[in-house]
Amino acid sequence: MMRSLWWYPWRALRELGWWLMRLFRLVGRHPFRTLVLGLVVGWFAWGRDDWRPMILVTIVLLGFGLWARLAPAPFDRWVSMPLFRYRKKRFVRRSWGRVLTGSGLVQREYAEQEKGRVTVVPSLRRLQWRQGRLIAVPGILFGQTVEDYQAAAEKIRTAFNARRLLVVPNANDTACELVMLFGDALAAPFQAPMPELSSVQTDKVLVGRTEEDAPWSLPLISTVLAGSSGSGKGSVMWAIVLALGPAVRIGLVELLGIDLKGGVEMKMAPKLFTRLATTAEEAVQLLEETVISMQRRLDEMGGVTRLHEPKVGAPAVVVVIDELAALTSYITDRDLKKRGEAALALILTMGRAPGFHVLAFVQDPRKEVLGMRQHFKQLFGLRLAEKEEVAMVLGEGAVARGAACHKIPPGKPGTGYVRGENGMITRVRAGFVTDAMLRQANELFRAPRQIPIIPPGPEVENPKPNRRPRKPRRKADEDQDETPLKNPGDCENPDDGEHPGRKPRRRRRPRNTGQDNPEESS
Ligand SMILES: Nc1ncnc2c1ncn2[C@@H]1O[C@H](COP(=O)(O)OP(=O)(O)OP(=O)(O)O)[C@@H](O)[C@H]1O
Q1: CA 411 – ligand 1 centroid, Å
Q2: Which of 204, 383, 451, 476 could covalently link to 231 via disulfide, CB atoms 3.0 to 4.6 Å apart?
Q3: pTM for the full model?
Q4: Which N-terminal residues, if any, form the signal peptide (predicted)?
């Protein structure tokens, strides 16, 4: 390949820049030592040569070093990142053949010219940085599929020293991009912002950040979030609830809470919830009453609209369930459990159009717990114990597409992978919500109404139907009733005389025509 004359000095300059950048970082870490060293070297240079250049170099080094130390973000943006990207790109280009050979993606083919078999390495069709990700497009060989690259993804990721590698197929699934991510924008925890009263969100809620350091907004649709104990489910729940706070305050969103751990979590900010259930009986009643409200709204929508727009008086309803398993698996009363599951399934399947959504949190993602996973529109996995659990939550193939919930370290609570309706997997981290923020939110975003869950009263045995008050009986009727029946056969309907608890039907007094009665006629 012919290179322009400028290419060599340009490359040399970038290499020099790389080493200087490392030197600046070192100086930034030890500024005092650098100063002393510079002065000592300058002192030795005194009298022999001109010492001024040494002082100048020391000042420049210290200047850049202190910049790297005191303002790391701008230093990274203007100095480190461009040099890092250049170095990484060069490394991937140079080691492409070796890495693909080691990952088993090369082929042995017969070549006429060589009079024998040769090793063919997939070409590197394109290599570029896009939005902080290094994207490599391999030329897939005959006989290979995108799945071969997905299977080798972990080997390629390790060889290129990337933090994450996604194999993104094209629309026809005939080619793919290897998307590599380096560094971690989600490494450090951050606090969720306290929303402004005016930032009313009803369709999407700002919950945290994505791994590209972009804001992460969760669409307000039925979502299940699974994570081991201590993975940060509580903070994700509060980040969502907090973001909905301004809409709750003005009655555009209604939160219905189910916290079967005695309400220990949700009672941190109970005023945000219009209704709060803390026992299994209350939870089932709440769900069943929600189904009735949902069906009423569906009736109102009939022939008018197909998608409900939240408004005051007809808000979007979000049922927040902390520990779904307590509702779907651990209830011992089978009848209650069935009723709860049926109501929940109805909300999940019919709730989207009338604006009824479920946010369910679960610790144990076994099948029986997440039996209704397919009804949830959005799936979210925090730290999970095993690879199999990731598949249970995010679906088959999620791990191959980069969802590594089982690799999230315990030191990064609130971090997880979300699978949207389009199947895209995104790594995200929720902002941390402190107890002080919850106390503040409890007063600031108080729901306009709080409706207690009143259990139905005890059933009355053999309730008497409302009867009209009896009319006072006429004397003539009483006389007639007293007329004894000769035998049951005297009834017009023989049953009438035998039906227990029912009075014999009143016999009509035969008309005295004087003709029908043979005795009289004779
Ligand atoms: N987004 C976050 N950033 C930083 N720290 C967090 C975050 N979320 C949670 N934590 C910390 O992690 C710990 C566990 O969080 P949390 O209680 O929310 O987990 P959990 O999954 O709800 O646990 P459990 O299921 O046992 O209740 C807490 O001490 C909390 O301070």
Answers
A1: 10
A2: 383
A3: 0.70
A4: none
